[in-house]
Design brief:
This protein has 530 residues and is of the alpha/beta class. It has helices at 9-16, 42-58, 70-82, 95-103, 130-141, 149-173, 187-194, 215-220, 224-232, 242-288, 294-312, 323-333, 340-344, 349-371, 373-405, 416-444, 451-460, 473-480, and strands at residues 30-33, 37-39, 63-66, 88-90, 111-114, 176-180, 203-211, 483-484, 490-491. α2 (42-58) crosses α3, α11 packs antiparallel against α12 (323-333) and α11 packs antiparallel against α14 (349-371). Mean pLDDT is 80; it is low at 461-495. GO terms for molecular function: ATP binding; metal ion binding.
Length: 530
């Protein structure tokens, strides 16, 4: 739910399939949205805005100023300081403190300068927020509701009464005044700023101060308007007309449409990766759920065998094959027992597929018997997850690299989106094949290691309490090789004397024009430096 979605209704419907429904306000809005003031220069605009703030501040009307950047906030703040106006500047840096300041932006004479992000989502109450004031005052007095219930209750009652009285004064002055220093590219952001005033039937007012040097005006609305203002308007005299405000809104719609087309184009590219992501995540979830990979592993083995045969058996009969290369490729995949002579006896490709598939599945079954069914299933799940994750990361990097240059295909009269979809699909299919081959290779290379074999190196590193631990380089020898101490038991190797080496000292060579080191009094270049 949001209060500013109506301007983006078309994009919500196209991108997310969501319909935007406007809900009537609970109370009749009383906010007055005034026409924009347009000045020739940015300096004249900020000077006029500062004067307007000073006038409102003198009447006790709270003012909320919205800027588009920290730089503009600080520029306006300097102008307010020159006029002696107390104000708070919020730049979306200290969110908790700034949220507290924004809640009190509706008090009498409050002036708050904020960027777009500062204090968002905080309701501004006319007269101030009593809860925030109570919390601040209680901390200042050092009282709590639990320890000082009577004093705390009196404090709450007093502050609530003060806020009600102050709220009446603010309503009498015209309510919260929202001043925007520049139009944004999106009308939605302007509506969010305007919506701070006139909440829940309270009075309020909003106005934007613009200049021909603003980004939006400079790009889309500065042609005829700049010519007219340059000939007839001084710098400090604004142009105010509803027609001009409507023209600016049309310029905003132009920018919104352009940005929507950009986002729509980006979404088309993202959909390719999104579909691939769904397949990968669905596969990972199936593995995490504890599915049995026995059948899938068997199919992966036969597919890996078939891919090698498709690559190397280009003809239909053995006479047309590179038999030696085929045997080497199969032995690289698994411990194949089929040699070149056996391959030559096969009649055709179909017989070769059947023979190698049967041989590979036999090796897999033998490994399953040696390791154990349950242990192998768990190993397969862990290996498959690791392989998928590694190849998926590499695939994302490759897709990013492809995306960086895909738009250049348009220079070759090719549709970049179609090329992205085609090559992205080919790369994904290649990745899935790599996952399969890597997984099969890992499975076939599994080795069974008993606990005794694992513990043997640890036993070689132990020594009795009477023995002294071996230090230095001989410790490595003792760890690697045990020796018979004469009793038949293996103990640590005795420490051996290691030859000591003197460090090599290198003296700095004298410069060519420095005295020679031999003491002859000549320069080095004419003595030993010749």
């Amino acid at each position: 739910m949001t209060g500013t979605a109506s301007t983006e209704a078309g994009e919500f419907a196209h991108t997310y399939g969501l319909e935007v429904v406007s809900i009537p306000t609970n109370r009749e809005p009383k906010r007055a949205d005034e026409a924009d003031f347009i000045y020739k220069t940015e300096d004249a605009k900020f000077a006029a805005a500062a004067d307007d703030i000073a006038e409102r501040n003198a009447l006790g009307q709270p003012v909320l100023v919205g800027t588009i950047s920290v730089e503009k906030s600080e520029k306006l703040s300097r102008l307010l300081d020159k006029r002696g106006i107390r104000h708070a500047v919020l730049n979306a840096k200290q969110h908790e403190r700034e949220a507290h300041v924004v809640t009190q932006a509706g008090r009498v004479g409050a002036v708050t300068v904020a960027t777009n992000m500062a204090g968002r989502g905080v309701d501004i109450l006319l007269g101030g927020n009593p809860e925030g004031l109570v919390e601040h005052e209680a901390v200042a007095r050092g009282i709590t509701e639990a320890e000082n219930p009577d004093e705390y209750a009196k404090l709450v009652a007093d502050i609530k009464a003060a806020c009600i009285a102050e709220g009446a004064m603010v309503r009498e002055a015209g309510g919260l005044y929202v001043l925007g220093t520049e139009r944004h590219e999106s009308r939605r952001i302007d509506d969010q700023l305007r919506g701070r005033a006139g909440r829940q039937g309270d009075p309020g007012e909003s106005r934007f101060y613009l200049s021909l040097e603003d980004d939006l005006m400079r790009l889309f609305a500065s042609g005829a308007m700049s010519w007219v203002m340059g000939r007839t308007f001084p710098d400090d005299v604004p142009l105010e007309a509803k027609m001009v405000s409507k023209a600016i809104e049309r310029a905003q719609r132009t920018v919104e449409d352009r940005n929507f087309e950009i986002r729509k184009d980006v979404l088309k590219y993202d959909e390719v990766l999104n579909e691939q992501r769904k397949i990968i995540y669905r596969r990972r979830q199936q593995i995490l759920d504890g599915g049995d990979l026995r059948d899938e592993t068997a199919k992966a083995i036969t597919d890996a065998v078939d891919s090698i045969i498709d690559l190397l058996c280009t003809g239909n009969y053995a006479e047309d094959w590179d038999v030696d290369e085929l045997v080497l490729a199969m032995q690289a995949l698994y411990a194949s027992s089929i040699n070149a002579d056996h391959v030559k006896e096969l009649h055709d490709v179909r017989a070769a597929r059947a023979a190698f598939a049967e041989d590979a599945l036999g090796v897999y079954t033998s490994k399953e018997d040696s390791i154990g069914t349950e242990q192998l299933r768990e190993i397969e799940r862990r290996v498959m997850l690791s392989v998928i994750d590694q190849h998926w990361r590499d695939h994302l990097y490759e897709m990013d690299y492809l995306r960086e240059g895909i738009n250049l295909r348009a220079m070759g009269q090719q549709d970049p989106l179609a090329e992205w979809q085609r090559e992205g699909y080919d790369m994904f299919e290649a990745m899935m094949g790599s996952i399969r081959d890597t997984f099969v290779q890992y499975v076939f290379r599994l080795e069974v290691v008993s606990e005794e074999n694992v513990a043997a190196p640890e036993r070689a590193l132990t020594y009795s309490a009477a023995d002294e631990p071996v230090q230095g380089a001989s410790a490595l020898a003792a760890a690697a090789v045990g020796f018979d101490d004469g009793t038949g038991a293996m103990g640590p190797a005795p420490e051996q004397e290691m030859p000591t080496q003197e460090p090599v000292r290198v003296e700095r060579a004298p410069g060519r024009n420095e005295p020679c080191w031999c003491g002859s009094g000549k320069k080095f270049k004419t003595c030993h430096g010749v």
